[in-house]
Write a structure and sequence with these properties.
This protein is α+β, with helices and mostly antiparallel strands and 137 residues long. The protein has two helices and eleven strands; from the N terminus they run E-E-H-E-E-E-E-E-E-E-E-H-E. Strands 1-2-10-6-7-4-3-11 form an eight-stranded antiparallel β-barrel. The protein is globular, with a radius of gyration of 13 Å. The N and C termini lie close together (9 Å). 34% of the residues are buried.
Length: 137
């Protein structure tokens, strides 16, 4: 069962929070719902899209962090050596920036619509930025 509905680039995905492994990040993001932004294709990380958030400080530190997100995993990089961002992997990702390797908090996992994930990533790569929204199911 999905806890979240994520809409991006004309596609709809179901998702769940990773509450047990990233409770502070999930609690912080729940307070922002419904959340709207724009995704652009990653520059250094491989097959992923991201929401650039600049100097935004969400008040969370590392928890359940990884540099190797799998397809359908959503990470929050809380800032530090690079800008704050949310990353959605649609394929192989080795999370990095111009500063080098990064690790982000894996706090959401897609649970449905996965057959459209690569289509979304390719659309962002070839067509440019797309709107994205997160809301409770």
């Amino acid at each position: 069962m999905s806890e979240l509905i994520i809409k991006a680039g004309g596609f709809t995905f179901g998702a769940r929070f990773e509450e047990a492994d990233a409770p502070k990040t999930c609690a912080m993001f729940r307070k922002l719902l419904p959340y709207k932004g724009q995704i652009v294709h990653v520059r250094w990380s491989g097959e992923g899209v991201w929401i650039p958030l600049g100097d935004e400080d969400f008040g969370v530190e590392y928890e359940n962090h990884t540099s190797h997100a799998g397809p359908g995993q959503i990470l929050l990089y809380p800032g530090g050596i690079s800008e704050t961002e949310i990353l959605l992997a649609y394929g192989g990702v080795c999370f990095a920036s111009k500063m080098g390797m990064l690790a982000g908090n894996h706090f959401i996992t897609l649970t449905s619509g996965l057959s459209n994930l690569k289509k979304l990533g390719n659309a962002v790569l070839w067509e440019g930025a797309k709107d994205i929204s997160f809301e409770l199911a």
